[in-house]
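Dear all,

This email documents one entry for the complex benchmark we are building for the journal club exercise. For each entry we list the sequence lines for every component of the assembly. Then comes the predicted three-dimensional structure of the complex as a token string, followed by one or two observations. Please use this as the template for your own entries, and keep the labels exactly as they appear.
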Amino acid sequence: MSPDISCGLEYLITPDLQACLTEALHCNYSFIVTPVVHPRFRRPYVSSVSTVGGFTRSDMILSPQDWTSRIVAKISPYICVDSMSPVVRQRHEDCLNEELSYCRGLGVPAIMLPLRSSNTNNLARILQTYNETSHHPSLIWASVPMVSTRIAQRNNQDVEESEEAWNETWHWWSKFHERLDWDKRVGVVLELSADLPAQEILKRWLGEPVKAIIVPTSIFHNNKKGYPVLSRAHQQLVINMVEHEAQVIVSGARRSNIEYYVQYLFRMWQRRPYKADDPMLSYAKGWEDYLQTPLQPLADNLDTHTYNVFEKDPVKYDQYQKAITQALIDIRQKRQVKDNDQIVNELCVIMVLGAGRGPLVRATLNAADITQTKVKVIAVEKNPCAVLVLAAQAREVWRDRDVIVIPGDMRQINLSPKADIIVSELLGSWGDNELSPECLDGAAGLLKVDGISIPNEYNSYVAPISSARLWAAAKAASSNSAQQRDKNLETLWVVYMQNKHDIAETKLVFTFKHPAKGTRDHEGKEVTDYRGLPLTDNRRSAIVSWVVKQDNVMHGFGGYFDCSLYGKEMISIVPSTHSPGMISWFPVFIPIKTPLRVHKGEVITATFWRCVNSRRVWYEWIVEVGNCTTPLHNPNGRSSEMLL
Amino acid sequence: MSPDISCGLEYLITPDLQACLTEALHCNYSFIVTPVVHPRFRRPYVSSVSTVGGFTRSDMILSPQDWTSRIVAKISPYICVDSMSPVVRQRHEDCLNEELSYCRGLGVPAIMLPLRSSNTNNLARILQTYNETSHHPSLIWASVPMVSTRIAQRNNQDVEESEEAWNETWHWWSKFHERLDWDKRVGVVLELSADLPAQEILKRWLGEPVKAIIVPTSIFHNNKKGYPVLSRAHQQLVINMVEHEAQVIVSGARRSNIEYYVQYLFRMWQRRPYKADDPMLSYAKGWEDYLQTPLQPLADNLDTHTYNVFEKDPVKYDQYQKAITQALIDIRQKRQVKDNDQIVNELCVIMVLGAGRGPLVRATLNAADITQTKVKVIAVEKNPCAVLVLAAQAREVWRDRDVIVIPGDMRQINLSPKADIIVSELLGSWGDNELSPECLDGAAGLLKVDGISIPNEYNSYVAPISSARLWAAAKAASSNSAQQRDKNLETLWVVYMQNKHDIAETKLVFTFKHPAKGTRDHEGKEVTDYRGLPLTDNRRSAIVSWVVKQDNVMHGFGGYFDCSLYGKEMISIVPSTHSPGMISWFPVFIPIKTPLRVHKGEVITATFWRCVNSRRVWYEWIVEVGNCTTPLHNPNGRSSEMLL
């Protein structure tokens, strides 16, 4: 049995709960789904009148452990607290509260209730109160069919062709979840249909917190040997869902031995298509959707553990080595054009700025070997611990080479001779967000006038995404105070994003080039500072727009970068151009304070500012869709900033 | 000179600022509007390069007192920080910051800047930072014309007929104000046009925080004697605006002696149409838009001052007296039908529940005198201080009458004989919000089976309103902590609302009747509690919808009540049926946490819940418009409640 798939069995009625549970466990199901109310018990008409005996069975029939781990309790299906009739609303509200408080008493892990329309204001209100008044509220599982056959029938359409019918039930869920403020204790249970919708619609569901899928026995068919099996499309969907941590619930008439269904599901999971051997997959295991605060290597010195992780990247330093190699070749060629042997054989000065524990020094030395160039390598590093490591290597490992270690901040030191090449790796997950522009501009005086900077350009990118999970995690991070919550939604989070859906394509935000050109005055002359260096302006603002492809809810952005090292050598974490196997960066999640409901055809417009003053750098952002707009995020860097 | 109108004079350039100010003050203007930048000073192209001399005049030319009270500083009109060009954006940003920080240094009371489109994201962002980084930021006055002639021209329409052209500039202002989170330090300056729009559009402006109106000299015409005068429509508009605390700025070419304009405005204001002698106007003076927490007379005992105020109402007790009179007449008539002298002449028992210091006892005794009925009046009161006053009056003033004072909570006492009539005045500004239903249902056992309750019915109402001022005041009330802000926007505020605009008509929410009918069981029988009293359910939920008549921003609701005392005798604070001269209640403002932008033709749907448990009563509410929705307000009464 694979430990990676958890299957449950749904019972429509459970006159003998213990017998049902025993049967299901015997057949290797892990849990059962059962109505809260026993069929024999009749509910009194006016609930506030106390009746002897209560409305359902006693909790003595199962062990506490079974109640808290094996039972998903279903709310009575007739309960409709959003009826148009005020009398029905109030009566059903009483019933619902009664069942909820019974579940609270039993401590069941999850309470399942069906959504039937997008009118769930009162239902959501009652559940919100339930959550706020319970110490350990059960999870809420809202079940919806994948398609609304009613809508398809109303439109006289085949189910398969009615986009509205497939959108409809997603709207039910999405509005309900919105009403509960995207609470992470509330998830969706998706009842698979015989027909399946377009890929885009399936992908949207993969961005939702699908806690379980209901697989009706009716969508299985029997194979030649008489065992129940699923179609290829259904198999793929179930596997995708389980990979996104959904459990599987078998439900409906027993057309076959009930044991066969779970056996089939286990086997299908074990035989699922093999994923390519991507180092990222194993490296990121356990970090899925886990939010981290971005590093501030300029303000804080990195620790050994962090260096250890980054130096293990199997791709990044190869790319650097290729880029340095090409740069050395080009420099030699340029010198040869000048046809002067003395110059051709002149020492090439390469400075590694922010050398850390030396990986770029090694790449540089390798490149020198490959191109048979005489190089002088100057390793500049401000972190005293890393300087110790560098100095030890210079003494011991690189003692035959011309390697000098200079402790200090690249923005403040002055060295001679100047460099033919400066090499640095100062990028964050969103490109410039670890202040690479400020560092490299500050070190511009170290480079010869026609010198080469590796990298020579980098770009940040964003895509609008839907992810209730990431948004709720950001909101809840660190603290429960409302003040903190505000801050959390005004900051960038480094995260390996899984449970999310891209609303539109990834687009360019900011670009930085090195060596940077300075600001020009009204006569077109470059303005310089007191050291004679170009006065650069690393403030940026960018307005980016997208057309929405299908109805969705936007919770923020995925943020990425790509970087041109030299010539054609790139590194990228933009999904479409991601450097294969490079593990040094997870993307960033940039939340918005108020998630925005977006509709097909609408235009999302985002404005990002990169703000700079003498002490710090920060981002601000705003998003507008139709009539709705977010507040300005992080005004004056009040919630997040990078210190210079 | 009237102290109620403040006029300023706008100068397009002020080469000699002191001379300009002297001239304006000499002509009886109170302040001048002047550009920040002196025309002689040329701004360096790159602002970060320090230049000797700076970009404008020294601040030594005026006294600090003149700077802080007589000068409205205008930002250079060419500054456009929302240009499409990133280079222009950044350069103009530098200029704007320079001018803002100069204004900050001078301490001018207000900074005026023009809005030219609804694209003001960057402008608003910079001003937000200015506000957050200033200890005493100047007020921001955003100036807009009343009409966008550009839009009218584009549409090939006469300005007067182009609804879009009149809406346009309101949108500029409204989106800008939204971007600044409806900050109360940010107001609008409205430049009057020669043509005027429909009344609805003018009314919408009256709901905005109009700090000043600019009256161009070009819209004055000369009367027979050659003095400048305004048309009747313009006069009315100026008067309305000044009544809403706007100042008046005269601007433009001097077609007449500049002194004549201000003289005309003063005279016009003094001769403005006389308002009917409404006691509310004098009573509410000074309370305009001032938020108060609703009373909780059930949980807290009222103080003498409060009784004093309420007893002075010139209308309310008259209405009660008429209602009691009519009830006594009807009781006698009913008894006469039974044709039994003994019954006809039987004592009529009238209980005043919550008698306070006795105004309803007096009304009852008066009604008895008028109808020549023998009455026994029982005054029930739980507030010990008020009981003292009642007892003293019973001894001294009412010593010849049959008046008994019973100290105690009407919900807990038991009296015999039972009452023919119970009279109470337990209503709050939103009807049931001081728990009248719970009190009267609790006292139901005191009333004869066919007895009369005065009042016998009351209804609460709401209308969606726009009022940035009330919303900002609610948000800021009590505290600056984010937690408190949340609470403040989840509670009802009693307030004499002035600076607001009704988005749609006033509609019914909840109804309560007395004596109340009890809940019925499934056999249709009334359910009773252990005392044999009907078991009532004072929970309510109501869904109310409105169609939006013109583009607007909804900040919350105005809340009102009306009440049927007996027969045709009513009291009401619903604007359309307000009891003339009744001063006992201001309306309530019910805020929403996220103001909603609403467009003509859209439907606003609000759901209100009145929730009850054994200890307390509270309201919850939600509003939906198109795709936008507010969160649920006050779930589980977390922010506001009324204690039982």
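Observations: The first strand of chain B starts at residue 7 and ends at 10. Chain B touches chain A through 50 residues (CB under 8 Å).
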